[in-house]
Design brief:
Blueprint (H helix, E strand, L loop, with lengths): L1 H22 L11 H13 L2 H14 L10
């Protein structure tokens, strides 16, 4: 699950950033509402920090240390 969520988080932020690069500054207009998707993806990645998941995955792969079973992962 952690591997999937880290990949999805990176893909969501990349896709949102690519949208603004391709569509230009007009894509940020409130009337289009496209900025909402990038902001939501970014909020979710900050709310559930990917860097901790990557650290726990690395510890498991390198040392065999299982990740915690509580909500911190």
């Amino acid at each position: 699950m952690s591997c999937t969520s880290t990949c999805c988080a990176e893909a969501a932020v990349e896709a949102g950033s690519a949208l603004f690069q391709v569509a230009g500054t007009r894509s940020a207009l409130d009337s289009l509402g496209l900025h909402r998707h990038w902001r939501d993806a970014r909020t979710h990645t900050l709310h559930d920090p990917v860097r901790w998941k990557v650290q726990h995955i690395g510890c498991y792969v390198l040392n065999g240390t299982r990740p915690p079973r509580h909500g911190l992962l």
